[in-house]
C-alpha cells in the first residue's frame, strides 16, 4: 500500500426533502449572500429553483441567479460568473445541478478567490489557487462525484482544450444529496452517470500498486452495487433505493476513497477529455463508455492477472488458471455488454465522429509531447492514437 492523504471535509446532507433546508444550512455557516449557479433550465421546469429560493428567502439569505451551464462547462461562462460575484459581493456559490454546474462553480470560486490571476493557468498547471470562495451544492445528477471531490474540469473553447486539476479549494463546504431530485433524469443521462461512477472507481482499481486488498474490496463492492442499481434505475427511474445507491456511490467513487493507497493515473479520463474537448456535444459518460474497453484490451496483456481478478470478483467469471488472459478478456466483454444494456455507446463510431482528428487528439493528450500517460505501459501519442482507432473500429 502506497502512502496517501485522505481529506474529505465536505459535509453531506443525504435524503428525502433535504434540499428544502438549504436556507438554514447556508445561514448556519454565516453567509448572507450567495450566487445560485445552475444549468440550462431544468431546475426551473421542475420547480427546484423556486424551492431553493423560497428556502433562502425564509432564512434571510440574499441571492443572485446565474444560469446557462452546458455539458462540458466553459471557461468563458465561468469568467462571467466571476464578474457577477465581484460586482454583487457574493459570499459563497450555491451550485444546483450536476457535475458540469459544480465544476463551473468551482472554477468561478477559484477565480474570485485569486483576483488578478488568470484562472486558466490553474488548469495548465502554471499556477495554483491560494484560496477560493466557498461552494455548496444541491446535486441533481448522480455521475461526476464533483460534490465531494477535489477535482474541477473546464473547457477552453479557444482551441478546444478540456483540462482539469485537483486542489483542496475544490472540496465543497457542504453537499445536499436528495435522490428524489434525480427521478427526472432521462435514460441516456442515467446511463452516462452510471458509467461515470463506475469509471471513477475502475480507473483507480486498475493500478500497478500492490497489496491494496482492502481498497480493492471497497471498490469491488461499490462496482457491484452500482451495476445492480444502474439496471434498476434504467427500468424504474423512480426507484428510490436504486437512485440513492447511485447518488452515494457517485460521491464515494470520486472522493479518493477507492484510490487510497494506490498510484492513480486515470488514462481513459485523460483521453476522453480530448474527445469531448474537440467535440463538446459528446457527453462525458458516453465518451468514457466508448473508450474504456478498447483501452482495457490494449493494456490487458501487461496486467492480465489484475483484469482477471476484476472479472472474477465483479462479474463472477470463472477463473482460467491456465490462461488468465481469457478470464481477463471475459471481464472486459462483460463490462462492454453492460454498457450496451444501458444504451451506452461502446465505440467512437457510434458517437457520429470521423477518425480524422485522432492524431491531433493524441498529441493534445500528451500536451504536445510534454508528458506520457503513466499506465501498465506508458502511453505516448502513437499508443493513444492506436486506442482511439481501436475504439473507432470496434
From TrEMBL:
UniProt GO MF annotations: alcohol dehydrogenase (NADP+) activity; butanol dehydrogenase (NAD+) activity; metal ion binding; methylglyoxal reductase (NADPH) (acetol producing) activity
Alphabetical list of Pfam families matching this protein: ADH_Fe_C (PF25137), Fe-ADH (PF00465)
Record domain Fe-containing alcohol dehydrogenase-like C-terminal: where: 193-392
InterPro entries in UniProt: ADH_Fe/GldA (IPR001670), ADH_Fe_C (IPR056798), BDH-like (IPR044731)
Name under which the protein is recorded: Uncharacterized protein
Entries under CDD domains matching the protein: BDH
GO cellular component, as recorded: cytosol
PANTHER family: ALCOHOL DEHYDROGENASE YQHD
Residues of the Alcohol dehydrogenase iron-type/glycerol dehydrogenase GldA domain: 9-179
UniProt keyword annotations, A-Z: Oxidoreductase
Organism: Cuneatibacter caecimuris
Superkingdom per UniProt: Bacteria
